[in-house]
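Chain entry —
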Amino acid sequence: MSRPSRHGRGFTLIELTLVIVIAGVLAATLAVFMRPAIDSYLASGNRAELTDQADTALRRMLRDIRLAVPNSVRSPGSQCVEVVPTASGGRLRMQGDSVNDAASCTSATCSAPLDTSQATTVVDVLTPFSVTPAVGDWLVLGNVNPNDVYAGVNRAAITAVASSPLATQGKSRLTIASTQFPQGYDSGRFAIVSNAQKAVFYTCVGADGTVDASGDGKGTLYRSSNYGFNAAYPTSCPATAGADIVATKVRSCTFSYDPNPGGTQQYGFVWLDIELARNNETVGLASGAHVVNAP
């Protein structure tokens, strides 16, 4: 009598149990060794994204601060800072053209120097514009006091931009709203402020140094612009309704301004410190910028 073949048999219960036990041991071993690596990978990704976001936020702030009108930095608190960024600048003609102005020249053909002893409506620009101003933009010069540019003491709206009538007179000619600038200003340096932006406020809201239940920072960094010029020095950080969001998940932020960090008052210094948190991963970046205070 022949014996039955074993090729048609299935696994026994003992064999299946052994397979399950071995598979469980292998899975547990892999979990012990692989999970830290996976967690580390995810954490490094979070930190990289937070670093990029913090770096982008600081770079945007520093760009506006470095381009600010001299003496225009105002900081009513450690959570906000206000500046008036410039779009362009250069030098104005401060004296008439004694060589090329003819005795019979007219207002359209004579050179147009800045005269601070009376109201000015036309000025010659001696240097080329990096960005040509638009009608409605602002000509600013001689900003000795922080509030001058905000109050409009040394700011005039541009009503026309044209080439100089003669090449000897300069690169451009600006027509401005009739304005008498502060007397005694003689350096000729000027700045152009975009009317589409005007002053800019960076405000940190809700960043109290803690995180929420998900381990995320609870604050947001905002950028407010095109709200005009507020003549009075701000006493508190402004509301942020309608403002652009610069960074989210902000755990903490500190902004400070020293108008005279050295022996002279030619430069001020702005210090920016921001910390972001996500999934209990935290990244902090800090940077500073010197700002020119010599108009």
